[in-house]
Design goal:
2 copies of one chain form a homodimer. The first copy, chain A, is mainly alpha-helical and 156 residues long. Chain A has one domain: Arc Repressor Mutant, subunit A. The first copy, chain A, contains 7 helices and 2 strands, in the order αααββαααα. In chain A, strands 1-2 form a two-stranded antiparallel ribbon. In chain A, β1 (55-58) and β2 form a beta hairpin. In chain A, α1 crosses α4 and α1 packs across α6 (126-136). The first copy, chain A, is globular, with a radius of gyration of 19 Å. Chain A starts with a helix and ends with a helix. Chains A and B meet through α1, α5, α6 and α7 of A and α1, α5, α6 and α7 of B. Chain A binds a DNA duplex (30 and 30 nucleotides) through α1 and α3.
Chain lengths: 156, 156
DNA sequence: GCAATACCCGAGTATTTTAGTCAACTATTA
DNA sequence: TAATAGTTGACTAAAATACTCGGGTATTGC
């Protein structure tokens, strides 16, 4: 699991899509203008998102992209995985100078952590994020934050 | 919040430190050998970890690094932040072509998410990770995974 | 049918980050 | 005082990121 600006671009673009889905297909040019991401870069990202079956395209005038399914069925982890590919795990892929010793121990620890982050993001859908923002004006995040300990304990 | 191999190196090294803390100061040469990270690269990482007050150093023969406080008081998020610096937020830092419109909306959504990941990692200490691994032999992760939904709901 | 729209695709490139090297230096201990 | 080990800074190779360019192809509306 990696979290880079590339993944952020992808999630941002997907959120833009989710927010404008009622207006029919959304063109990359629109997303580019709204989100300040270069058109050609978006094309590259959406090629990957399409291969991952997260979006589908409509060609021709008035065309654009559309979520391939409902926002509540698309998870943040899927979006990030789609553009990041090759998660290359732990450098020592079973083989290598990584025996039974401490090396494998800490490597596994990191892998566990990485898995937990992935699982965490796999539980957040685009719809969750959109809903959260829409609701936010009402309950302006007086909550959250301190519930964290409980959540971590539950996952851990 | 960014999650790169750099952060993984830092967390791995800190875990190595946490695991060998009973043996007095741990030299970077030891960590380098055990974890397969180049010595000079470790030096750069530990310079940052030291500046962030996560480790303290002991010079001279038999010297090395030591956690600056107990493992349960050092959180994964702190380690990653220390080596990653400049989280550069959302490109539009208040100013720029980011008005009241949709741009700010989705940017904020991403920022919220980023904050949540940060909060999540801020609840996991080095001691948690070490303990988890030690317990793992007993309850070999038949659990986990499906508890995720609950956890996310709690945070969200 | 034809022009405009907008996706599709591959090659190329500038910038940044990552990962690592090298060399000189300082503090500490045996 | 020699060996150890942290401290610092400059420098570099390789990879990832972010972006450009130039051509495609499918679709629609006039």
């Amino acid at each position: 699991m990696r979290l880079t600006t590339k993944g952020r671009y992808a999630v941002t673009a997907m959120l833009d899509l989710a927010l404008h889905i009622d207006q029919g297909p959304v063109s990359l040019a629109d997303i580019s203008e709204r989100q300040g991401i270069s058109l050609s870069y978006l094309e590259q990202l959406f090629a990957k998102l399409r291969r991952a079956d997260l979006v589908c395209s409509v060609r021709g005038p008035g065309g654009g992209y559309r979520l391939s399914r409902e926002g509540q069925d698309i998870y943040v982890a899927q979006v990030i995985d789609a553009v990041n590919e090759s998660v290359d795990a732990t450098k020592c892929k079973g083989a290598g100078g990584c025996q039974q010793g401490v090396t494998c121990l800490t490597h596994h620890l990191w892998q566990d952590l990485s898995e937990q982050i992935h699982t965490f993001l796999d539980g957040i859908s685009l719809a969750d994020l959109v809903a959260r923002r829409e609701v936010q004006n009402v309950a302006d995040r007086q909550d959250g934050q301190q519930d964290n300990k409980i959540a971590v304990d539950t996952i851990l």
